[in-house]
Structure formats: structure tokens, C-alpha cells
Amino acid sequence: MIKMREDRISVFRERLDKYLNLGINLLSLAIGCSVKVDLYDTLYPALSLVNNEIAKLNIEIQPREDVAVLRSNGDYSLVRRIYDISGNGVNKDELISINPSVALLLLQVHQSRASSPKEFASSIISLYRRLGSSPVRVRIGKGHSIVSTKEKAEFALIDFIGTKSGNEYLLANNDTIQIIDPTEDPGSYRQVATAVSNALNDLFIKGVYRDITIYPVYDAPIEDLREKLTRSFKEFSSKWDFQLNANVIQPRVNYLLMGATVVGTLDKEPPMFYDNIKAGFKILVTRSFGELSIISTYLTTHVDESIIDELERNVMSIEDLEKLKTKIMDSLSRPNIEIARVISKYLPEIGEAFREDEHIAATVDVSGPGIFVFKELAEQANVDVALYNIPLISPEIAKFAAEHYIITDATAGTNGAIAIVASKDVIDSLIRNLRGIEDVQPMVIGEVMGRGSGKLFVPDYITRYITSKSLLMKLTMNIDVLRSLRRQQVRCEKVRVEARVLGNVQGVGFRPTLRRQALSLGLTGYVRNLLDGSVEVVAEGCKEDVMAFIEWIRSSPVGSVQTINYMIKQYYGEFNEFEIR
């Protein structure tokens, strides 16, 4: 065992040395969406410092939304320009010639600017002054800011998109990461697939799945690695039948970066009906989240051997952690386009009004901010929201990562779960339509309490997973509110499920993990191993929670489920808790 560990660490350190020789310090790069400039501590305070000056410029910043939305006739142009961080090189005459309908802005700033709202504000206002001094009004449809550890790696990339108004919508987004799994090749297919899928997710949540074009954004310190990234972009686009425009210019500041601007069309009204969200609307997520805590913990264990010892004593073996990490990477590198097709079915036709008994009210991507996307949603819709379940992929790893300050918010991810807000009837229908999609385990985790000031009520155990005091202060932990919601659930339709699970499900920690998930959903019953190698599960509770439990079992993060056979039966009220037999 000791020899295996030494070999594992030796291989990882060889990889570190290899990339250090190429000018890449893997340990200095931010993993996944954690590369973004902090929204609450830096970005929003910086914007508040310059809002008055921006208001005087010929520039418009779209309200908080993760994607630019335009009415379009189906045709559009995209012109990419790259400037220094202060906007030197912005040409007024060229802006008049381009005459953009919207601009997508990507800033890569040094960490010294990214940690100070004042420094960050001084950077963006210089760029905005130059953009806003043109006779052409520049609308910033999406702004994305990321952090570099290299001073000379700063740049401002702007994709100017032009289109004419028509009878459909054009949606565009930009997202980038530096790396998602530092233990594998930065130019690998899975790294690029995850980066592009993360950008695509903000289109998918709006129901976009047609006419998608990828405009890659990437950089690396050497030409061979840039070429490998190019091949991975081509492989991903070909595999998933997306258009790829590989001719756009790239930053070339010799710093690892991968992502894309993505553009697609929508022939429905996008799910942005925030004013129609009201009390009783449910919140559904398409799968558990918290991917970055697992990947970050895996990385840290290979740097600090004492962490391995504690992990294996209290949580799981490093081998099991590696299997879980690999399973997550496979999921993250798979685009959520099938979910987009389902979402599209629940949107109004162009020009039609929202109907709560038929349509989705709003959607969000549970990625970089983790559960704080629900806080942003609550503020945007002027409602209060309560989450009575925080379905993490591995609560044990999330807790471990937070306790050891590996990650300050263990609910964060990349290319994460999609959250949907709609009436109960629509959510029930959605669950039926989402079942069967690979890696999808739809579950209801909360609901809208009604009009309010944008509060997000969460269970008090969230403090196990978030160590940042400034983040925790934005949450409301009121046990009486959550108990009230649970009492309301008592009036739900209760059922019993009897299931038999086949696959590699014994001797892998399947039963304890399953029990924790059942308890988090408020279910009672039992799980036990059978002599033929399968596992028997009996659970009782609200029908929507029982069905969420079944979907969770299908994609269990522990073991490997091949088949689950189950029957829904009459509720007996037989159990007081959920136990392992």
C-alpha cells in the first residue's frame, strides 16, 4: 500500500515538473469556475464604484444574466478584438463600422487587481471609457472576468456580435477556465470538452439546442500545447455535431486558458419570467453538485501526504476518491444538450404569454457560485427562496474539503447541474421527461416562499461545506422556516418504493451513501445486501422525493449501478427512520 502511494505521488510530481519546465505551474492555476473574479468580494463592489461614471458613457451593461439575449432574423456576424487591459487599441471608427448589437467581454486580470475592488474598478473603467466614447452605443451582454498569476498575461477580449431583429432569439455566452483536472494533460479532450460544455450550459438552461456555433478561446505557453488544444476543440465539435469557427484570433499571452464564446438560436420565449415567480413554485435540480470539492481534494492529497492519511482514516481511500473523480470528469465533459431539448418543450411560443400551468419560469446553472446562484435568482426575482435539501455529490468530501480549507465553498462546480423554477405541476411533468437522460437525476430541493427581499433560507448544516464568513453572511439559516416547509410536505402524496439494484454495489460503501441521500430527502425505510450481490431498497415518503431518490440511485457516485428494478406501491407508514440492515 505504501509503495502504491509513493508511486502515485511520484507520477503526479513528475507531471508537475514537466509542466513547470513548460512555464506552467499547475498548482498556481485555478480549477474550473474558481478561476473567476469573486463576485461578492470584488466584482459587484467594483461595479458599484464606477456605476455613476459608466452611466455617463455611451455604454450599457445588461442586467445580471449569464447569457446575452437578442431578437434576431437568424443571421449574425461576430468580430473578435483583443486589447490590453486598459482598452488601448479600441478604435472609434472601427466600432462605428462594426456597429455591434451586443458585446461579450472577457477580462483576464492579474491577481493583484482581482483581490481589490478599487484596483479592479480602475481597470474596467479605463476600458469602458474607451468603449463608451464612440458614437455607437455598446451594450455589454455578458461580462466574464478571470484571474491570472502572471502579470504580463492580462488582456481584454471582446466578441462584437451584430444581428438584425427578427422572429427568433439569438443567445450568446462566453466562459473560460484554466484547467479542470490538473492530474491529466491540460490539452486533453476531457479538459477542453468540460471547458466548452461549461460555456454551452448557459445556452442550454435557456432551452437553446439549435444552430450552435463554437468560437474557441484558448492559450498556452508553447505552440505544441496550443495545437493540441485546437485538435481537442475540433474533436469535441465533431463528436457533438456543433459548428466550430476556428479562425477567430486568440489572446497569445502564453498563459494556459481554454473556453469559448458560444452562439445559438431559440424559437421560443426564453425562461426569464422573474416577475411571474410566486409562492409555492418548486426548485428542481438535474443532478447533485459540488464537483470542485472532489477534484480539489484529489489534487491536494497528491501535494500533501498528511492529507491522504486523514482522508483514508475518516472518509475514503485515495483509490475510491480517484474513481469518483474520474466518474465526475466523464460527466463534466458531456454537454447537457438533451436537457436543453426538454426545457424548450416547456417554453411559450414567440410572442405568447407565460402560463404557470405549462411553462418554466426561470433557470440557472449551478456552477461557479454553487448554491449562491439561488441567492442571485431570489434577488433578481424579488422573492425569498428556501432550500430544504443541498444534494452534494459527496457530502463527506465536501465537508473534508471545507474543514481543511481546500475550497471555501464546497458546493461549487463547473458545467454543473441545471436548476429549474416552475409550478408543481410543471415540475412533476419535467421530472418524467428528464428521466432516462444520462447523468440526470432530477430532484426537488426547495421552493419559493413568496415576494421578499431576496433571502435564501438554507439548512444550518451548510456551514459544514462553506468556510467563507462573507459568503455565509449572505445566507439565512432559520430552522423554523424550513420546518414549516417540511410540515407542508406532510400533505403531499406519499408512496412506497421497493427496488432491487444490480451492479457493483456491495463492498464499495453503497449502502451508507444511499442512506445519507435518503435521509437528506426525508425518506424512511431500509437498504440491505442480498446474497446474489444485489441490493434491496425500500423507501417511503413524498412521491416527488421518492422518485428523486430512484434517479439518484441510477447515477450513484459510489459503485456502479447497472440496473434498478422498482415498483411504486401504497404507502404503509411502516418505518420511523432509514436504516442499513
From TrEMBL:
<dbReference type="GO" id="GO:0003998">
    <property type="term" value="F:acylphosphatase activity"/>
</dbReference>
<dbReference type="InterPro" id="IPR020456">
    <property type="entry name" value="Acylphosphatase"/>
</dbReference>
<dbReference type="InterPro" id="IPR036046">
    <property type="entry name" value="Acylphosphatase-like_dom_sf"/>
</dbReference>
<comment type="similarity">
    <text>Belongs to the acylphosphatase family.</text>
</comment>
<dbReference type="InterPro" id="IPR036676">
    <property type="entry name" value="PurM-like_C_sf"/>
</dbReference>
<feature type="active site">
    <location>
        <position position="511"/>
    </location>
</feature>
<keyword id="KW-0378">Hydrolase</keyword>
<dbReference type="InterPro" id="IPR017968">
    <property type="entry name" value="Acylphosphatase_CS"/>
</dbReference>
<feature type="domain" description="Acylphosphatase-like">
    <location>
        <begin position="496"/>
        <end position="581"/>
    </location>
</feature>
<dbReference type="InterPro" id="IPR001792">
    <property type="entry name" value="Acylphosphatase-like_dom"/>
</dbReference>
<dbReference type="Pfam" id="PF00708">
    <property type="entry name" value="Acylphosphatase"/>
</dbReference>
<protein>
    <recommendedName>
        <fullName>acylphosphatase</fullName>
        <ecNumber>3.6.1.7</ecNumber>
    </recommendedName>
</protein>
<feature type="active site">
    <location>
        <position position="529"/>
    </location>
</feature>
